[in-house]
């Protein structure tokens, strides 16, 4: 089991023997986003201590804080973040940060508590294209969202191979019951802090290798609410139609608020 778990991690981080050190995120069978549709999406480029680059997604949760997967920050000495545009190479804002926090109980082998925060040196000015997402309210913090339709958002390639997408992608996905998720991933989903999804419009729809930190949202009364961030996928890749695994945000709201100051 340990070897299998490590193999999953190598695929999602792009550390397998056939992967380059420059990492790209991907969503398969998604749709092109429009300007301002997801104003809280962030791309994160990390620089490791050995000089390699990593690439992840994140989500703006305040005017100075970005939430992402802990694995996107583990071993990183500096990150660059870009936001404000659906065009990946033409961001409205680009800045760097040396300040980030990984959840103290993060486990790189089992993906437990796979969540981290980046703090920006200067607050951002909110516009139509740059806004913070809403965290789950108290009534949603223990919700598993089973059978709910949610939206996964991110930049990147559209399958296991090919070039990164030049435009922000999103896909509608369905949240699976915990037992169904466990039938694929076993002990990786043994806690209520993890959930899985499959495509709602297409059997092969969801995150692909390296789509770390991509936000999963629901929309209530025209308000986007963050319910998960992409954590792991199947070792068979994203074209096999297997579920995407997420960290469920509800149990971490208190930890997030302690770090962002409200």
Q: Would you give an account of this structure?
A:
The structure is a single chain. The chain is mainly β and 262 residues long. It folds into two domains: 2-25 and 39-132 and 252-260, Thrombin, subunit H; 138-251, Beta Barrel (Thrombin, subunit H), CATH 2.40.10.10. Helices cover 11% and strands 33% of the residues. It has three helices and 16 strands. It has helices at residues 2-13, 178-185, 253-260; strands at residues 27-28, 31-32, 41-48, 53-60, 65-68, 76-83, 93-97, 99-102, 116-119, 149-154, 169-175, 194-199, 206-207, 215-220, 223-232, 244-248. The strands form three sheets. Strands 7-6-3-4-5-9-8 form a seven-stranded antiparallel sheet, covered by helices on one side. Strands 10-11-12-16-15-14 form a six-stranded antiparallel β-barrel. It has a two-stranded antiparallel ribbon with strand order 1-13. Strand 14 (215-220) and strand 15 form a beta hairpin. The longest helix has 12 residues, at 2-13. It is globular. One of its GO terms (biological process) is proteolysis. Residues 27-261 form the Peptidase S1 domain. Residues 1-20 form the signal peptide.
Give the structure's gist in a few sentences.
With 262 residues, this protein is mainly beta.
What is the fold's blueprint, element by element?
Layout: H1 2-13, E1 27-28, E2 31-32, E3 41-48, E4 53-60, E5 65-68, E6 76-83, E7 93-97, E8 99-102, E9 116-119, E10 149-154, E11 169-175, H2 178-185, E12 194-199, E13 206-207, E14 215-220, E15 223-232, E16 244-248, H3 253-260
Antiparallel strand pairs: 1-13, 2-11, 3-4, 3-6, 4-5, 5-9, 6-7, 8-9, 10-11, 10-14, 11-12, 12-16, 14-15, 15-16
